[in-house]
User: Fold G protein subunit beta 1 like from Ursus americanus.
Amino acid sequence: MTAPLPTMAASPLPPPDPQFVLRGTQSAVHALHFFGGARGQERPLLLSGSLSGLVHIWSLQTRRAVATLDGHGGQCVTWLQTLPQGHQLLSQGRDLKLRLWDLAEGRNAVVDSVPLESLGFCRSSVLARGQERWMLAMPGRGSEEVQILEMPSKTSVCTLKPEADAKPGMPMCLELWQADSSPRPLLLAGYEDGSVALWDVSERKVCSRVACHTEPVMGFDFDSQKARGVSGSAEKALAVWSLDEQQALQVCRTHELTNPGIADVKIRPDRKILATAGWDHRVRVFHWRTMKPLAVLSFHSATVHCVAFATDGLLAAGSGDQRISIWSLYPVRSDASTPLLGHAEGGEVGAHALA
Assistant:
């Protein structure tokens, strides 16, 4: 009797290993950010912020740190962002300082500093306002406040305070953005009570607020083209929410997770997939339009604190195990009409099966 032929319903392929791993931070990794690097470089540079207060600049060609920035007095670096006008970096630390670094021509020098007045976990946000000006949103003096500054002048634009009857708690994450149809700056803020609010910065008022979680919002990302966002918290669910033309937020759906605790959420720049950083040591990858689970990346041996995407599709994950894993999961397609493969029913699938 001959053995039966294998069927197409065979179990899915296992997830891949990282393309490579960066080691040498010597403490837990709490922030990641890709930026383009010098002209002519084949791959972007990766910035990492560590529990020990150091910022490392990594070459993905040599897979080594090319510079180390020490500007936060040994206190955890929680947020990194390069500015669109050139080689300038913002770093936020638990030392209550925002540092502005000049990275041009290997200088790696602090050129300005903004004091923070809140020791919360809230990461700041920036919005370009022309070639030389940008807006900065950061946690304010009061525990529930968000401070908006015009930079680099540090001119105070406003302080956003919740309504007297609202008790959202501390802001946990912020995102400044502008709709294509209006120059007015808007701010999305995730709060300690699990809600997400949309602020009109010019009017200093909340346009809409929606309850997304029963625990503090630990991380979110927003797709301004689709007017849709996704958030994670300490609970076992992701919330997907949308913004209508009347600027009203509403929860579209929730996606149950295997284990509780999401530390960070990022949508890839081409808006095809998203990744989450889990307290359970795992990175989960989803299709953004359908929220179909695509892969569970089980490499790290401690909490994954942060994830970041490069424009070329590379995914980086930083963990309490002092390692940064780099993943190449799905090609970024130049033809936006080409569907992302791997939508077939049957649960999570190996990422290399979708390439």
Summary: Residues 268 and 309 are 6 Å apart (CA to CA). The longest strand covers residues 171-178. The chain has a mean pLDDT of 87.
